[in-house]
Design brief:
Blueprint (H helix, E strand, L loop, with lengths): L9 H25 L15 H24 L5 H9 L8 H24 L5 H7 L20 H22 L10 H20 L5 H11 L1 H29 L16
């Protein structure tokens, strides 16, 4: 039978991006706040999922989000990825701003719903979560800094390097001829899991400005004062990766045509 599927509209794509970013933030930040250490005051953390659980939560949300909504929007769920794909010639620059706006909205909705759940928590759960930074990113040794006490330089290097690696892998596994479409979401999710395993102790892992903004808006003045690092340097890493991929892996004169989305189908 002929393929009669109707291509997704711009509205479809934007809603898919918002939903995917919501899932990523709600699942990852929610795991960090609700389940990383459980009960919250347990010194030995007998039931909490810890760093490994949080890393898996971020990776799994990307896997399921990319399978569910990647065929609609491309499954970016991250401004750094959107800009990196544009730099690589895989996404139209004119569409980057709408994508980024809905990603920020989806991320903020994710943490807002965590707050609404937290209102009904016991023992001042919400106040304690906000007092501890609300799973925000950070550097240094202050109350809202790096979990491992790493400084600003470490955060900058980690965010540029790990975001660049993330975007390079995405560009590789979603390539129209060299990629493996059916397994691309799994590879992307596993990469994000690995990135979190490496860098949660460094700066609580951003590689995604939408995730960082969504947490910081409820984390208070401390996380907000450091937020610029987790907006600027993931974007730098994404852009560098896009340009590097284009220079190294796309033969001159044979670049793939600019697409409305970077398809995972």
């Amino acid at each position: 039978m002929p393929d009669t599927a109707i291509p997704p509209t711009t509205a479809n794509r934007l809603v898919a991006e918002a939903l995917g970013t919501f899932l990523l933030v709600f699942g990852g930040v929610g795991t960090a706040l609700f389940a990383a250490n459980f009960p919250a005051d347990a010194e030995s953390n007998p039931l909490g999922v810890g760093f490994v659980g949080v890393a898996l939560a971020f990776g799994l949300t990307v896997v399921v989000g990319a399978y569910a909504w990647g065929p609609v929007s491309g499954g970016h769920f991250n401004p750094a990825i959107t800009l990196g794909l544009a730099a690589a010639g895989r996404f139209e620059w004119k569409n980057t701003i709408p994508y980024i706006i809905v990603q920020l909205i989806g991320g903020a909705l994710g943490t807002t719903l965590i707050v609404l759940i937290g209102i009904f928590g016991t023992d001042n759960w919400l106040a304690n979560a906000q007092d501890s930074g609300f799973a925000s990113n950070g550097y240094g040794t202050g109350d809202f800094g790096s979990p491992g006490g790493f400084g600003l330089g470490a955060a900058i290097i980690a965010e540029i390097l790990l975001t660049a690696i993330f975007v390079l892998i995405i560009l590789g596994v979603t390539h129209s001829t060299r990629g493996t479409a059916a397994l691309a979401p799994l590879a992307i999710g596993l990469t994000l899991t690995l990135i979190h395993l490496i860098s949660i102790p460094i700066d609580n892992t951003s590689v995604n400005p939408a995730r960082s903004i969504a947490a910081a808006i409820y984390g208070g003045p401390g996380p907000l004062s450091q937020l610029w690092v987790f907006i600027v340097f993931p974007i730098v890493g994404g852009l560098l990766a896009g340009l590097l991929h284009r220079a190294l892996f796309e033969p001159k004169g044979t670049l793939p045509p600019v697409q409305a989305t970077a398809r995972l189908e």
